[in-house]
UniProtKB/TrEMBL annotation:
Residues 32-44 have a biased composition (Basic residues). Gene3D superfamilies: Haemolymph juvenile hormone binding protein (3.15.10.30). Coiled coil: none annotated. This is Uncharacterized protein. One of its GO terms (cellular component) is extracellular space. Residues 32-54 are annotated as: Disordered. It comes from Timema shepardi. InterPro entries: Haemolymph_juvenile_hormone-bd, To_sf.
Length: 246
C-alpha cells in the first residue's frame, strides 16, 4: 500500500466462517436454498485457471471508467487504474431470488460484507463549479458495514448446438455504514484545494457517495458482467445449473 495513504487496511474476520473452506458465509435461511448452493459451488476466493479468473480477494481490476455529470457545474470522468479490492472473501449471502427458464435469467442476490478496502491509481478531469479537476495520483477507500443486492440479468444463447448463459447486466448500488476516502493530487499543484476537497468528501461522504453511485454502477456493471461471463460462456448451461432452472 502506498505510503501516501491515510487509511489503514485492517484484517476482517467472520466468527461463523468455516475455517477449512474458502467459501462464502451463508445465512441460516440461505444454507438450505439450492440456488445459493449452486452459487456457492461456483464461488471461492482463489481464482480459477480453468476460467482465467483472478482471485476474488484481492480482486484486481486493470481499468474502470466512470463518467459523471450533475447539471452544468459538476461533470467529468475518472479512470481507475490497477485497483485492488480486499475482503470480498468475507461475503455473506443472505438471500437469493431468481427467475430462470430456458431462455432468460433474472436473479437478485442479497450480500453483506463487514468491510471493504480499495486502493489503486486514478486519472481524473472535469469541473466542480468553477474549479477545474485535472488530477492523477493514488487513492484508497475504506468502507464498513457494506450491503448490496446484486441484480443479474442475462439470456441463454446457443453455440455449436450447446446452450450457454450470457449475462447482459450485473448491477449493484451498495449501502455503506461508514466510509473514509483519500486521493493524492486531485487538484494538481494546489495542496490547499486538495486538502479542502478531501475534508469535504470525508465529512459529507453520504451526500457525495449518493450522488456518484448511479455513475459508479455503470462502471461496475461493465466490469462485473465481463468477469461473470468468463465463467458463463465457458460452462454449458446444463453444467452451470445441473439441477435445471433455479
Amino acid at each position: 500500500m502506498s505510503n501516501l495513504c491515510f487509511v489503514r487496511k485492517t484484517t476482517l474476520s467472520s466468527p461463523d466462517r468455516d475455517s477449512d473452506l474458502n467459501l462464502p458465509v451463508l445465512s441460516s435461511r440461505a444454507r438450505h436454498d439450492k440456488r445459493v448452493s449452486q452459487l456457492r459451488h461456483r464461488g471461492g476466493s482463489r481464482g480459477s485457471n480453468e476460467f482465467s479468473l483472478q482471485p476474488l480477494d484481492p480482486m484486481h481490476i486493470p481499468e474502470m471508467q466512470v463518467v459523471y455529470q450533475m447539471g452544468d457545474n459538476i461533470k467529468g470522468n475518472v479512470t481507475v487504474i490497477n485497483s485492488d479490492t480486499y475482503a470480498l472473501s468475507k461475503i455473506r449471502i443472505n438471500d437469493v431470488r431468481s427467475n430462470v427458464n430456458d431462455t432468460h435469467l433474472y436473479m437478485e442476490v442479497d450480500v453483506k460484507f463487514p468491510g471493504v478496502f480499495i486502493e489503486g491509481s486514478y486519472k481524473a478531469n472535469g469541473l466542480i463549479v468553477v474549479f477545474p479537476i485535472n488530477g492523477k495520483g493514488v487513492f484508497n477507500i475504506s468502507m464498513s458495514d457494506v450491503s448490496a443486492t446484486w441484480k443479474l440479468s442475462g439470456q441463454v444463447i446457443k453455440r455449436n448446438e450447446v446452450d450457454y448463459l450470457r449475462l447482459d447486466h450485473f448491477n449493484m448500488r451498495p449501502v455503506v455504514g461508514d466510509m473514509k476516502f483519500y486521493a493524492s493530487e486531485l487538484f494538481t499543484g494546489s495542496d490547499e484545494l486538495n486538502a479542502a476537497a478531501l475534508t469535504f468528501a470525508n465529512q459529507f461522504w453520504p451526500i457525495v457517495y449518493e450522488a456518484l453511485l448511479p455513475f459508479a454502477d455503470e462502471g461496475w456493471d461493465q466490469v462485473m458482467t465481463d468477469a461473470a461471463n468468463k465463467i458463463f460462456l465457458k460452462v454449458p448451461f446444463k453444467e452451470l445449473f445441473p439441477n435445471g432452472p433455479l
